[in-house]
Amino acid sequence: MNATDFPAGAPDATDDLDAAFPFDLPPLVEGDPVDVVILGAGVNGAGLFRDLCAQGVNCLIVDRGDFGGGASAAGSRLIEGGLAELEIGDLAGARQAASERNRLLKNAPHFVDMLPVVFPVFSWLGGLGAALATLLGTPTAPRQRGAILARLGLALHDRIAAAPVDTPRHQLLSRQAAGAAFPELASGIAAAGLYQDARITAPERLVYEMVKDGLDACPASRAANWTRLVSCFGGSLSFESEDSTDFAVRPTLVVNAAGPWIDEVNAALGAPEAQVAGRRQSHILLDHEALRRQLDGRVLRFEMAGDGRVLTAQDYLGRVLVGATDAPTDNPDEARCPDEDIAALLDALRTVLPDLEFTADQVVCTYARTVPATAPDEATGQTPRPGGPIPIIEADADRPFPILSLVGGRFTTYRQFAETATDTILQRLQRSRVQSTEHLAIGGGRNYPGNPLARSVWLAEASVATWLDEPRLETLLERYGTTALSIAHHICDHVDADRLPDSRSVSLREIDWIARNEDVVRLEDIVLRRLNLGVAGLFTSRDIEAIAIVAASALKWSPERRAAEIEAVTTLLRDTRRMRV
Ligand SMILES: Cc1cc2nc3c(=O)[nH]c(=O)nc-3n(C[C@H](O)[C@H](O)[C@H](O)COP(=O)(O)OP(=O)(O)OC[C@H]3O[C@@H](n4cnc5c(N)ncnc54)[C@H](O)[C@@H]3O)c2cc1C
C-alpha cells in the first residue's frame, strides 16, 4: 500500500487528536528530583514501580526496550499456586505462591483465571525415593512422578491452595477414567491427576498496566521505554531515548530490575557482581486442531522423558502453546528457539500422546528467552531462592547511591517480591508505607464485572453508552478488561466495521486508540505486547501493514519510518519467532 492508501476508517494525519506524548506527561528535565530509578520494566520492575508510586515515592522507570518485552513476555503463561514449590519441599514458598495466585485472580480478573490441569503419570511408586530425599533436605524435584506421589502432592496442594470457593478439589483418575477424559493419552499411563490452577492470558499487557497504574498514583513519577542508560558518573545517570532526547537524573537509590541483564547493568553502574545464572527456555506454538480439541480448555502437564522436567501444553488463542525446554546459557540476549529445542518439545509430545502426529511443519511460531535465575553464592556455593532476599550493593565514594537487585521473581509472586523491596526502600528513604497492594486491582481489572449478572449489566450499560453491540463489547472486555470502555468510546465515534484484513476481531479504531494512548514507540509494541494475538503468530503480513498504517497516522511517522517499522517487525517475527510471514 502507498502512504495515502489508508484503509477505510483509519484516521489520517489530519485527525484532530494529537499524537500523545507517552502518558501525557511533560518530559523529564535535567535535575528533576527522583528518589528511585528502576532500570528494567519487566514484571518485577513494573511491580515495584507501582508499589512505590502507591506510597507517593517519586520514581523513574526506564527500559531499554518496551515495557514487559524481556523474560516477562516469554513465560509459560501459568500462575501456579504452589505445586512447583511443594515438589522441592518448600512449604512456605508454596503457601506464598498460593495466596499470591489467589490475589492475582482478584486483582487481575481480566487476564488471570482458573482452569483444569491434567497430569498423567506412568507408574504408581515413581518419585517416592526422591520425595523422601526432598523431605530430608535435598532441594531437587523428583523425576518420573508416580500416582502415589501425585495423590499426596495434589492433596497437599488442595490444603494449602485455599482456591476460590467454587474450585473443585483434585482427583486421581484411574487409567480407564483418564483414557475416557483424554483418549489420546499414551496407553501406558498408570493414572492421571486432575486439579485446578491459574493461567495468565496477557502478561505483556499486565506489565504495561502496572506501569500506567504507577503513573496514575504518583503524577511526579515518570516511565520511559526504548530508553538507553548512556552513562553513570558522579551520582548522575544519563539516558537517551529512541528519538535521541537525552536527560539525566541524580537518584537517591537505584533498583536493578533488568532480569537476565542484571549483571550487565550492575557493570554499567560501576558495580560488577555476578548475581544471575541464566537458563535459555523455549516455547513453541502449534497449529494442531486435534491436540487443541483433545485439550478442550485444559492444561496438559507432562514430563520431559529422561530429565523429569515438567512441560505444559495449553490452548492459547486457538494455537497450542508448549514449553519449556531448559538449557544453561551465559547469553542474556538469546531469543531464538533453536531446532534442537523444537525437536525436544515435539518428542516429548509424541511420548505422552503417541497416536497424534507431531511435525515441525505444525510449529507456526516460537519464543525463547533467558530466564533470570539466581547465581550461586560465591562464598557458600548455595543458590539463593529466586525472589528471596534482595541483594544490595552499598554506595561508595564514586557512586553515592546504593543498588538493589531484583533477581528471579516470578509472575505469580511478583507482588510480594515488590512489597519486600518497597519496604526496604521506604526504610532507607525514612518513609512509611501508606497503602498495601494486596487488594489493589490492576489496570483493566478495576471494577471488573466478575460474575454473570455483573457482566450482563456492564455489557448492557456499555452498549447504551457506546452504541457497540454486546458481542463486540464482550470481545473488548476479554481483551482489555474494563479499559474496554475507553476503547469502545473511541471506536463508537467512527466505523467499527473497518477491521484488520485477516484478524477480523481487531478494528482499526482499536489500533488507533492503542497507538495514541498506550505509549507505543515501535510497531512491535502493538504487534507483540499491547495485543496478545501477535504472540500466537496470528497477525498476517497484511494485518501488520494495516496496523502500521494506523500507527503511522496516529504517531505521525513518515512513510520511510512506517516502511522501516514494517521491515523491522517482519524480520523480528521471521528470524526470532520463526514465523512464516
Ligand atoms: C520460559 C519461561 C517460562 C516461565 N514461566 C513462568 C510461569 O509460567 N509463571 C511465572 O510466574 N513465571 C514464569 N517464568 C518466570 C518469569 O516470567 C520471569 O522470571 C520474570 O518474568 C522475570 O521478570 P523480570 O522483570 O525480572 O525480568 P524481565 O522481564 O526480563 O525484565 C527485565 C527488563 O530489563 C530491561 N533491561 C535490560 N537491560 C537494561 C538496561 N541496561 N537498562 C534498562 N532496562 C534494561 C529489559 O529490556 C527487560 O524488559 C518463566 C520464564 C521463562 C523465560
UniProtKB/TrEMBL annotation:
Residues 436-562 form the Alpha-glycerophosphate oxidase C-terminal domain. This is Putative glycerol-3-phosphate dehydrogenase. Belongs to the FAD-dependent glycerol-3-phosphate dehydrogenase family. It comes from Aurantimonas manganoxydans (strain ATCC BAA-1229 / DSM 21871 / SI85-9A1). One of its GO terms (molecular function) is glycerol-3-phosphate dehydrogenase (quinone) activity. The keyword Flavoprotein applies. Its cofactor is FAD. One of its GO terms (biological process) is glycerol metabolic process. Keywords: FAD, Flavoprotein, Glycerol metabolism, Oxidoreductase. It holds the Pfam family DAO_C. It comes from the Bacteria. InterPro entries: DAO_C (IPR031656), DAO_C_sf (IPR038299), FAD-dep_OxRdtase (IPR006076), FAD/NAD-bd_sf (IPR036188), G3P_DH_FAD-dep (IPR000447). Gene3D superfamilies: Alpha-glycerophosphate oxidase, cap domain (1.10.8.870), D-Amino Acid Oxidase, subunit A, domain 2 (3.30.9.10), FAD/NAD(P)-binding domain (3.50.50.60). The lineage of its organism: Bacteria, Pseudomonadati, Pseudomonadota, Alphaproteobacteria, Hyphomicrobiales. Residues 35-378 form the FAD dependent oxidoreductase domain.
